[in-house]
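Quick check before the chapter quiz. The format below is the same one you will see on the exam, so make sure you can read both the input and the output lines.
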Amino acid sequence: MALTAEKKAQLVKEFGKNDKDTGSIEVQIAILTNEINELNEHFNVHIHDFHSKRGLMRKIGHRRSLLNYLKKNDLKSYENVVAKLGLRK
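Here is the expected output.
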């Protein structure tokens, strides 16, 4: 369920400016999206896991905040990230 080092490195390479760019908004959004997708798969099996559902809602709220910040400050990058991740924004 946790994000593996290989998957995180792949996301950083795809969305970051270089291989060590783990803190940029685009990379954070990509990592959160990956974690949200994994939690959604978890909930297909474990329907009554309400404690993890709270964590999912926190991740969704954090991603929404980051997307709003990116949209306000760098619209072109925002559109690129939304298109690559397939988000409905």
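If your answer matched, good. DSSP finds four helices and no strands in the chain.
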